[in-house]
Description:
Oligomer: single chain
Number of strands: 0
Strand content: under 5%
Order of helices and strands: HHHH
Amino acid sequence: xxxxxxxxxxxxxxxxxxxxxxxxxxxxxxxxxxxxxxxxxxxxxxxxxxxxxxxxxxxxxxxxxxxxxxxxxxxxxxxxxxxxxxxxxxxxxxxxxxxxxxxxxxxxxxxxxxxxxxxxxxxxxxxx
Length: 128
């Protein structure tokens, strides 16, 4: 469950306890939400952070579209983590056992959404 929203931005801070709330959903086109292209998650640590902030969006958003995006982006990164060596994922979870402040969580979510959107676009182009 997310902690209290950070001052002013409405994005909740997260702890690892929120990981168990993530449900699965099909990947949606989050590019339409206007997220800026920025750094994308590539490491296990980054993928853990993507799951955390996506889960916070699912649990904390009052907007159904926001919850859908959070679930979809989170499912994408859970799938990526599923193929990582378990010891590597466990070590990343231990290292990330801290809160992600709201402002930082917003930037992380934007980067994660961009990464997931690019993956979806790549898969769609292969299906043509």
